[in-house]
Design goal:
Blueprint (H helix, E strand, L loop, with lengths): L7 E13 L5 E9 L2 E8 L5 H12 L3 H9 L3 H5 L3 E10 L5 E10 L10 H10 L31
Antiparallel strand pairs: 1-2, 1-4, 2-3, 4-5
């Protein structure tokens, strides 16, 4: 079937290692198996990409910079991360000869990129769309009709 551009795929690391481009720029490469095919992904290691790459290696594989340095120096990266589940997002790229290929745009931990928690404004907006109105702020705590305890606090964390 083959992988398509602009899609997210769940996959597993089959192999990985350290390589370099024809220009000499070092890169980490990953061979990823998905249900729709196998794709190879390269992450170039430069002073400009080092921080982002280190964060991604930590998120995807739980490896810090010192561990990455040790594994790459000893050719042990593949053994350490082989079998790890990841999620990838693909893109289409044009080669110099005009051919189009599918490449990995992003590699994330299994399940896709981490979701950002909603802000209070987002929660209020969704609640309003479903017809709820947040309680009005008041200086004194409200009491029930009999003058008892105040009602429970507004809970924005209740799932819909």
């Amino acid at each position: 079937m083959g992988l398509e551009a602009g899609r997210r795929y769940d996959g597993v690391i089959m192999d990985a290692g350290l390589t370099q481009a024809e220009t000499g720029t070092p890169a980490l490469w990953f061979r990823i198996k998905t249900d729709d095919g196998i794709i190879t992904h390269e992450e170039y290691v430069t002073p400009n990409t080092r921080v982002r790459l280190a964060e991604n290696m930590s998120k995807c594989f739980g490896l810090g910079p010192a561990e990455m340095a040790k594994l790459c120096a000893a050719d042990g990266l593949a053994d350490e991360i082989r079998g790890t589940d990841v999620s990838i997002v693909t893109k289409e790229e044009e080669l110099k000869n005009g051919d189009l290929i599918v490449k990995v745009k992003w590699m994330n931990p299994a399940g896709g990129p981490p979701k950002k928690p909603p802000t209070a404004a987002t929660k209020s907006k969704v609640a309003a769309l479903f017809g709820a109105s947040p309680p009005a702020a008041s200086a004194a705590p409200a009491t029930d009709a009999a003058g008892g305890a105040p009602p429970p606090a507004w809970n924005d964390d209740v799932p819909f």
